Amino acid sequence: MALKKVFKLVLNTVPRPVLIKLSLMARPILELSMRGSKYTDPIDGKSFRKFLPYGYEHSRDNVLSPSTLSLERHRLLWLYLKNETDFFDSPLKVLHFAPEQAFYKRFRKLENLDYTTTDLNSPLADITADICDLPFQDNTYDVVLCNHVLEHIQDDEKAMSELYRILKPGGWGVFQIPQDLNRAQTFEDNSITDKRERAKIFGQYDHVRIYGRDYFDKLRAIGFKVTEVDYTNSKLSPEEVDRYRLSPGEIIPVVTK
Q1: In the chain, N or C terminus with fewer CB closer than 10 Å?
Q2: Could you tell me what percentage of the chain is helix, strand and coil, using 3-state DSSP and rounding each to the nearest 5?
Q3: Tell me: the pLDDT tens digits for 151-168?
Q4: Same-domain pairing of 63 and 110
Q5: Same domain, yes or no, for 199 and 159?
Q6: φ and ψ of 27, to 5 deg
Q7: Based on the domain organization, do 101 and 226 belong to the same domain?
Q8: Which residues contact 26 (CB under 8 A, 6 or more apart)?
Q9: Does 90 lie in the same domain as 66?
Q10: What pTM value is reported for the model?
């Protein structure tokens, strides 16, 4: 319980760029202290007796990998990319928004990828850019990864339009978001500006909405073709879902142009 409180306090008080740098320093200690065999991170294949807690408002037990610092969504995406796509094999021009620590060094080492990272604030980004006004030409990228970004953006339709513009015809992307699948309609209220109130309502102090099932139709309205991939139920056993510490029923939004 004390560890959960510490993680929650750090997440809610330390600015994200500083948090990224601190986590990189802490990772070797966490990895060594939590070695075991019960749970496995599929990204690097390392196993641990348990994972760490994580969450800005409602802390989740046993979800943060001590080695890659991946969460449920990262491990799910890795398994999908590895097993269901040509991401690791074909020559691809890739743009990665808000690059996750679990991925960006591994992706950069892939010789088949022409790989660029971008974000407005992240110290891991190659190019500093506003997702609503991107400095890239039309039809540039074969693959766009933009995960857990749109819930931070006030004008998400403008951001989606920019993502569509820069993606090549025939290209594809993954646009994961925190989503309440029990909610038919997305909820947002721009009058809520207090960080504590936002955390209570939206789940995180810097989120501006809770996406419902209509998220997929929002993407379709921009022009994307959307496949709602229920990977934990269609491709993985319950034992694998537990061993990899995934979120059962999480949908991967795979888009194509």
Answers
A1: N
A2: 35, 25, 40
A3: 999 999 999 999 999 999
A4: no
A5: yes
A6: -55, -45
A7: yes
A8: none
A9: no
A10: 0.87
